[in-house]
Amino acid sequence: MTTRAATRPVGTVTRGTTNPNRLRRMDRWIAAAHGAELRRAAGPVAVDLGYGAAPWTAVELLGRLRTAAPRTRVVGIEIDPARVAAARPYEREGLEFRHGGFEVPLPVRPHLIRAANVLRQYDEEQVARVWAGLCARLAPADGRGSRGGLLVEGTCDEIGRRHVWVALGPEGPRTVTFATRLGSLDRPSDLAERLPKALIHRNVPGEPVHSFLRDFDRAWAAAAPYASYGARQRWIRTVRDLTADWPVADGPSRWRQGEVTVDWSALAPRVR
User: Fold this and answer.
1) How confident is the model at residue 122, as a pLDDT?
2) Across the chain, what does the average pLDDT equal?
3) Which residues contact 159 (CB under 8 A, 6 or more apart)?
4) Spatial separation of the C-alpha atoms in residues 99 and 101, rounded to whole Å
5) What are the UniProt keywords, alphabetically (predicted)?
6) Between vectors from CA 51 to CA 112 and to CA 137, what angle results, nearest 5°?
């Protein structure tokens, strides 16, 4: 790939916290949900935006995406030049690292941008602008069955037990996914602390995400008898009950992974 004309990176340096396997749940969901789009593309490019102080998440993303789409290339982009220099020794076929930020300095439109734990330090009011800019950089829908590229933006804990992320296409937000290691969960609302910046301050009465987590906890309590069969069976029963009132966008094959995906329109913040 050739670099576009140099521009000043957009954004600010993050804390850079990272750990191996921290983003495994997000990666596996991306491979399952977006693998067909990556396979359809002639030269699929995925971006690990703000990968942090070490390159582990970009290295792992390449391996996981190639199980679904073997021709995928991954570019790790960091706003801190020292982090880019430290990552360069890990470059290999299909993996490179570049200096940049939200402008995504690539000569092509990527088919995936993953931005994990990047927007936590920003104000809620900045999120829509960042989302719009990143969505504008995605590969467009082609009118022949492709929905275009995907932006996955969200937050997880330090060791990847709990995640919440929003998936967005060129047209804007599509879904919200809650994912957890079921053995570590006391109740679904434990995931509230990992809500992405667009939602975390909206977990208050009167907001849809608060109502959703309330109903999630109620369904979890009602499914307590299934705990004797294991946390997975309790989760599956809980999500099945949620489908009566909430537009759950996935099915049992994903629920078994400790996930549930809901239409963004059902959880979007109310306009203030």
Assistant:
1) 92
2) 94
3) 19, 21, 22
4) 7
5) Methyltransferase, Transferase
6) 30
Question: In this predicted model, what pLDDT tens digit does every residue of 184-197 receive, in sequence order?
Answer: 999 999 999 999 99
Residue type, 9: P
In 3D space, the residue among 178, 152, 177 whose CA is nearest the CA of residue 37 turns out to be: 152
Pairing of strands 45-49, 112-116: parallel
User: Can you spell out the DSSP letters for the chain?
Assistant: --PPSP-PPPS--------TTTTHHHHHHHHHHHHHHHHHSSS-EEEEET--SSSHHHHHHHHHHHHH-TT-EEEEEES-HHHHHHHGGG-BTTEEEEE--TT---SS--SEEEEES-GGGS-HHHHHHHHHHHHHHSPPP-SSS----EEEEEEE-TTSSEEEEEEEETTEEEEEEEEE-GGG-SSGGGGGGG--HHHHTT-STTSHHHHHHHHHHHHHHHTGGGGGG-HHHHHHHHHHHHTTTS-B-S-HHHHTTTEEEEEHHHHPPPP-
In sequence order, the β-bridge partners of residue 175 are 167, 263
Residues in the chain: 272
pLDDT in tens, 220-249: 999 999 999 999 999 999 999 999 999 999
Quote the pTM value.
0.94
Which sign does the torsion angle of CA 177, 152, 136, 16 carry?
positive
Say which residues have a Cβ less than 8 Å from residue 27's Cβ, sequence separation at least 6. 60, 61, 64, 65, 114
The pLDDT tens digits for 163-182 are 999 999 999 999 999 999 99
